[in-house]
Amino acid sequence: MAIAKAERLMNLALCLLGTRRPLSKRELRDSIEAYVEASRPEKGAAGSDDSFNRMFERDKDDLRELGLVIATVENLDGEVGYLARRDSNRLPPITLDAEEAAALGLAAKVWQQARLAGAASGALQKLRAAGLPEDVDPYEAHGALEPRIPVHEAAFEPLMLACRDRRPVVFDYRKASAARPEPRHVEPWALECWRGHWYLAGYDRDRGAERVFRLSRITGRVRSRGTGFTAAVPDVVTVRETVASWAGEIADGTALIRLRAGAGYPLRAKAGRVRELGDGWDELEIPYGHGLDAWLVEFGPDVVVLEPAELRADVVDRLRAVAKG
To answer: Do 222 and 198 form a contact (C-beta atoms < 8 A)?
Structure first.
């Protein structure tokens, strides 16, 4: 059915764009096969007229919503006709200088490892067909720069489409401190890459609050759940700032830990002070912020929290929860 409607809209658009004079509903009805089929008098002449009129009005509204400017003209006999003048439906010429073309080329290169590679390449081809100067190659300009944003998570594409369409989703999510995933019902707002990982920000319906989810912790398939959001989407979605605060990047104190020698290099990079203890252990002083306990748990037996006491208790609780499964 979707293909049939798309074909019908395309035929109507071509008729309206290709004519030099307004076409009446009767002429359009006789020119487009789908309208001819809808007008067959299976339910009588009145029924076929009503069916065609409803279909034509819906199609006309759909084309206008898609951006086609359709003029309504009344002739001397009072008959109404329709046409889409080419001068009213022509985009202005595209003019890009070398720097702008280079920026587009870099943007396209970013997605070479993702499912968006084909769309990015196709967009540049359309710009070339629309008038991008032949002497400008967006792929070659600034060729020393090779940006890459890897997208390996299967959840990326369905979540990207859900963000675009404002469509709620449900997926199974495994927290860092949990042994098993649990379902999450989310109204997705935005996706962002931060330090090599993709994150989704959105409204968690089960918890009634904003949450950020790491895509690599989503298991199984992302499923759509109805339409429409129940919570307002903020004007600015600060994915990186939220992730940074939950990951302990925004620190308001310091913590003292023991770290096994030769392990925990990300922790060593953050350390303000390192002291060798011997017997294969070092003592580190690191920034302490909300979410640091979840990060330390990922290092397992290589980390022992010395202080503060509340951080040590949080890490122990998380490890016990994992051990219980």
So the answer is: no
Structure tokens at 32: 């487009």
Identify the three-state secondary structure at position 310.
Answer: helix
Rg of the chain (C-alpha set): 30
Q: What is the pLDDT of residues 271-301, one digit of tens each?
A: 889 999 988 999 999 988 767 787 888 888 9
Angle between helices 98-110 and 117-129 (to 10 degrees): 160
Phi and psi of 192, rounded to 5°?
Answer: -150, 145
- Which 3 state secondary structure label does DSSP give 205? coil
Q: Whole-prediction pTM value? A: 0.45
Please give the Cα distance from 60 to 112 (Å, whole number).
Answer: 38
Pairing verdict, β 273-278 and 209-214: unpaired
From 63, 90, 72, 87, select the one nearest 25 (Cα to Cα). Answer: 72
d(CA 140, CA 127): 16
CB atoms within 10 A of CB 214: 19
d(CA 187, CA 224): 10
* Pairing state between β 197-204 and 273-278: unpaired
Q: 58-82, pLDDT tens digit by residue?
A: 999 889 888 888 999 987 777 899 9
